[in-house]
Design goal:
Blueprint (H helix, E strand, L loop, with lengths): L1 H15 L6 E6 L4 E6 L2 E7 L12 E4 L2 E7 L7 E7 L6 E4 L15 E3 L1 H14 L4 E6 L17 H7 L59 E4 L5 E4 L9
Parallel strand pairs: 1-9, 7-8
Antiparallel strand pairs: 1-2, 2-3, 4-9, 5-6, 6-7, 10-11
């Protein structure tokens, strides 16, 4: 009778103990984001930093197996790794990082970085539910991590023609004596060329104008005489010089 009572009491205590929930940590490397679920119910969503180029965090499904609250990397100059949860035998772990500005982009040497406060929350959850009851799943492709370079929008044809002079390309539309049309694009660095077959017209202020007659002056030294027959004679006065 006493054995039966003892067995019943032991069974009741086992049934009364709370069952550990399954913790699923899903990491999308393409989005650099972590989702924490408990028994299929999403609980947290945080930005992360996975491995950068040359140090890619491996994809796959892993079981967490070890936890360390204060861990320092022996491979990377004793770098602090607070609230570490290891999920590969090669040393990949989820841990907090002080390099918070780079969260959301690949920046680590293979581990999964979290904000220290978020890493502490995950550490406490895994510790409560059991490290061996935690699954880590990684998928996706990490971005290159190189910031996008701003590019100038392509210019229109009018802007391109205005900005870059066209050398050596003749312009046959402009003739001598024509004024440039305002409001149109002007090609700088070009000299207008004449239209072949047409001669430029130059204005001459003297052609076609009435010519003024020049006054005729009589020689003051000459004397005109008219004879009886109506003929005139011009007699030059004698000079004071003998051979004039």
């Amino acid at each position: 009778m006493s054995r039966s009572v003892l067995f019943v009491a032991l069974a009741a205590s086992v049934l009364a103990a709370p069952a550990q929930a399954a913790v699923l940590v899903t990491i999308d490397k393409s989005a650099q984001q972590m989702t924490v679920s408990v028994d299929g119910r999403p609980l947290h969503q945080w930005p992360v930093s996975t491995g950068k180029a040359g140090y890619d965090t491996p994809n796959g499904k892993f079981k967490a197996f070890r936890m360390e609250r204060d861990h320092f990397s022996k491979e990377w100059d004793e770098a602090p790794m607070p609230f570490s949860i290891f999920f590969t035998q090669k040393g990949h772990a989820i841990h907090g990082s002080l390099d918070t500005k780079r969260l959301g982009s690949p920046a680590s040497h293979g581990c999964v970085r979290l904000l220290p406060a978020n890493a502490e929350k995950l550490f406490a959850l895994v510790q409560q539910e059991g490290v061996l009851n935690t699954t880590v799943v990684l998928s996706g492709v990490a971005p290159s991590g190189v910031p996008a370079v701003a590019r100038r929008a392509p210019r229109s044809d009018a802007e391109e023609a205005y900005a870059q002079p066209q050398y050596g390309r003749p312009q046959y539309q402009q003739q001598y004596g024509q004024q440039p049309q305002y409001g149109q694009q002007q090609q700088y660095g070009q000299l207008p060329r004449p239209v072949y077959g047409q001669q430029p017209v130059y204005g001459n202020p003297y052609y076609g104008q009435q010519q003024q007659a020049q006054p005729q002056y009589a020689d003051p030294r000459a004397t005109i005489y008219r004879d009886s027959y109506g003929q005139t004679y011009q007699v030059r006065p004698r000079s004071v010089f003998p051979f004039d």
